[in-house]
Amino acid sequence: MSARAPRLIALVAGGLAGAVAAFPALGQDAPPEQRRTESVTVTARKQAESLQTVPVTVTAVGGADLDRFQYDKIEDVVTRIPTLNVQIGGSGSGAQLSLRGVGSSNISAAFDSAVALDFDGVQVSTMRILQSGFMDVQQIEVLKGPQSLYFGKSASGGVLSIKSKNPTPDWEYGGKVAYEIEERGYTLEAYTSGPITDTLGIRLAARFNDIEKLLYNTAPVADPKRGEQNINARATFQLDPSDNFSANLKLNYVRHENDGGIFFAVNDCGANGRPDEIYLLSGGFVVPPGYGCDSSGKTYFLPDIAPPLAIQSPAEAPEPGSNNGVPYGVATTLFAILKMDWEISDSLTLTSVTGYVDQSAQDQDEYSYGGLLNGVSFGVGTGLTDHQLEQFSQELRLASDFNGPFNFMLGAFYETRHSEFNTGQQAVNISLVGRDPVTGNTFDWYKRHITNGDAFSVFGSASFDITDRLELSGGLRWTKEKKTNNILVPYVHTFLSSGPAFIDSGFDSGPIRFKDDNFSPEVTLSYQATDDINFYGSFKTGFKSGGIDNSALPSSNLLGFASDDPAVREATANALIYRSETAKGGEIGMKSQWADQTVTLNLAGYYYVFDDLQVQNFDAVAIQFATSNAGEVTTKGLDLDLAWVTPVDGLRLFGALAYTDAKYTDFFDSNPNNDPAIDDDLNGRSVARAPKWAGNIGADLRIPVGNAWELGITGNIQFSGKYFTNEDSFDDIVQSSYVTFDLAVSIGDPDGTWQLAVIGTNLTDELYVQTSGGRPFLAPPGNVRGLPAGDDQILNYNRGRQLAIEASFKF
Known about the structure:
This protein is mainly beta. The protein has five helices and 43 strands. The strands form nine sheets. The chain has a 22-stranded antiparallel barrel. The protein has a five-stranded mixed β-sheet with strand order 3-9-10-7-8. A three-stranded antiparallel β-sheet has the order 4-5-6, with no helix packed on it.
């Protein structure tokens, strides 16, 4: 943590304390029950329980807090949850979530996320749905640590759960209009909710968001502004035909469009202090970089595709092909959720949750991150991606509610998934020599990865009240997953396929198979010391399935699939397979409320060991992704959440503090391509995006103005210590400590009938590096051109300052 962070926090805390002291008379006559901390309900164990009694480390952010700061994207929520890290990307999986230093790469569409994404009870395998943000949210819950017992697959690091609002018993109408000044964006949002009949309710909500300038591009392109458009629409139906049966159907439509897959990517000149040339065709073609050495986050250089490369993409590639060299991105998601509850008896409830996801996403950008030749934008390394995903899941749960000391839950889960990840690439850029003489194409190849996966699991949990205050709970989940991948290469440029290094057009690997199964036990002991103090300790395990890498180049390395020798075919397949990821450990915690429930203090300590953590790095010289399993990662630390409904009427304080110690604790070969300049073994080094200290402190103040208005002031300060930004070496770029500040001021009707607000997030315009990696097409040491060895890095930053004016209404 920087020296200024504690001073700034102390200053704000002192100011808040001064505000309390300055208004000693306010709120003193309010009854104690009106000043108590609001009760929060969570579903951390797949049933409604109080946040203060459930023996799980979970942080909840309510819809009202999200609205106050116009938080409509998941990366905004990190200011309230210190150990959560979010990076939104364009290609690959589309986003990255990590908790307590544990996450999965966003550059691979093959990985499931180590932090499961749960939408209204259905786990979604695609992170691209996060690109468009969210709307009409009731609550966001972040469950920390392995959650495999209740959430199953891909919850080895935790769960991010988003819960949307449901139909209301009476008719409501609402909406808002907002204009963001810094990025020149506006948002329109509206909803209607109420009963159609005595047994059927409906809620319709929609949001349109248009941002003109997420970043300003300094490359000589037709439109230097890069922005995005987002459409979110949801129809929710609530059916209650009888006292013992209910059904809830949610139909979601999400569309995200942008001006390319790359956002907030800045070139850093590395240790040699100069922008490195773009080194192509073994030095046969070298392009000046075009950018300078300002990596402060204020200068972005992202060219369009070089004219010789933009002429023609393969016929199999996604429309509109190369788009005349202009980067673009579009993703459409249809998402349906059906939840049914049937009370079989007074003490047994059967729950069914069905989920269906259909997603189509295409994007193109130039992954040289530079290139300027004779004053012409000259981007190379084009990636043209088409990702099709269809997912169906079904979960059944039978839960008891006996009056006695024993209760249970039994469940079964099934998921089937079909994924096609198709790419037209220019990793060699051979068309700088000449177009394909047979097809006229100017791409190197077109490659398809078709993956089919099935997951099945059964689980059971039980709780037993040893005494009125002591509860023992736990359970076991058994999971079996299998995946099949086919690599198809319909097209390879003739200049490449005619040599020994690449395969011919029409290649088909045949099925590459992976399967694994796992037992994930969990046990928890909780003690309700008083009505307001609860202690708990738990042992937990986690599991995330392995799979088949989808970043293999169509090189001669794949020829082993055509071998007559089964051992050769198996070895070729095994080179693309990464192992499953497992976790084991536990935590102890205390949840408490004090001073007549006006102060909430929750504290948890944890220790987990992750085996075979799935990692993907990039070799900037060989232009090759390296997928591997880190031998072992140990993460331990403390989480503190605090809230105080002060004696000052309308003043609420909140905050969180996290200490995280996450390190590689066994041999980890971060450089399977064996670059002698890189230290292979990261054993003992901290993992990426895991600051030792992080936290936030904030205040919310509601002040009556006359008899009809209310003034609202909400502020939040987030601070973070330094952390590594990549997983390559001990010399990776380290982000120094930083502080950000959000402030929202509103005036309106106390009941929310209308409100005007000015909302500022990251007001100090603090830019920090989330991830980093070598810039593609670096010159190797001892190259034929006599150029210095390239060491430029790509730094992926957060969004800068946002300042919005918002008008909202509800009646």
